[in-house]
From TrEMBL:
Location (main, coarse): cytoplasm
UniProt subcellular location: Cytoplasm
Lineage per the UniProt record: Bacteria, Bacillati, Actinomycetota, Actinomycetes, Micrococcales
Acidic residues bias locations: 181-195
Any one GO cellular component localisation term in the record: cytoplasm
Boundaries of every RimM N-terminal domain copy: 17-103
One of the record's GO molecular function terms: ribosome binding
InterPro entries listed in its UniProt record: PRC_barrel-like_sf (IPR011033), PRC_RimM (IPR056792), RimM (IPR011961), RimM_N (IPR002676), RimM_N_sf (IPR036976), Transl_B-barrel_sf (IPR009000)
The protein's name in its UniProt record: Ribosome maturation factor RimM
Length: 209
């Protein structure tokens, strides 16, 4: 007799593929912001998504299933099981959609565990390492640990143009203000020009008789 028993399946890594942004119409439709290069594969009828919502939401810990995907004026709109009216749709606004990792990894898609620990380069120089990835409703942020603390970097292509897993690096082109050198503490003790001038004038001034 053959043994049909199987080992317990291991938890899968998950990939963030979209965010619910706005109720559309009165029948439960919701506009989506897509974070996937393969919506035709990810967003098909029957696709199930884990929800990332606040702990106080009635949807916390639940998943939803897509029943239909449409496009209106170039924007994707989804219909989901159990979301039959605008009130239900509005209760899902800002929810982030996650799917289990599959064998076909998308281009420019990484998992948190792959990014943590990568060296962060600016102009070819190392400025820190990735400590964690924060998934926020508006966008993802890379928390970069530097010698002076932590810097939050928007994880968008304009600021993070390259992730090289083989080299173990992330290249950043940050806007002004990010990764600026923090002045040494003793610099604050140096007198300014006005202070020096005042001291000099006081030294040169004749004493009152």
């Amino acid at each position: 007799m053959s043994d049909n028993s199987t080992e317990p399946s291991q938890p899968k890594q998950q990939l963030r593929v979209g965010r619910l942004t706005k109720a559309h119409g009165l029948k439960g439709a919701i506009k989506l912001e897509l974070y996937t290069d393969d919506p035709e594969h990810r967003f098909v009828p029957g696709a199930e998504f884990s929800l990332q919502v606040p702990t106080g939401s009635k949807w916390h810990g639940k998943s939803i299933t897509l029943t239909e995907m449409r496009w209106y004026n170039g924007h994707p709109v989804g219909f989901f099981e159990g979301v039959a009216d605008r009130t239900e749709a509005e209760s899902l606004i800002k929810a982030i959609l996650w799917v289990d990792q599959d064998d076909a990894v998308e281009e420019d898609a990484w998992y948190d565990h792959q990014l943590i620990g990568l060296r962060v380069l600016r102009d070819g120089l190392e400025v820190g390492t990735v400590a964690r990835v924060d998934h926020l409703p508006a966008q993802d942020l890379l928390a970069v640990k530097t010698g002076h603390g932590e810097v939050l970097v928007p994880f968008v292509s304009a600021i993070v143009p390259e992730v090289d897993l083989k080299a173990g690096t992330v290249t950043v082109t940050p806007p002004p203000g990010l990764f600026e050198d923090i002045p040494d503490d003793d610099e604050g003790d140096a007198p300014d020009e006005a202070g020096e001038a005042s001291s000099a004038e006081s030294a040169d001034a004749p004493e009152a008789e």
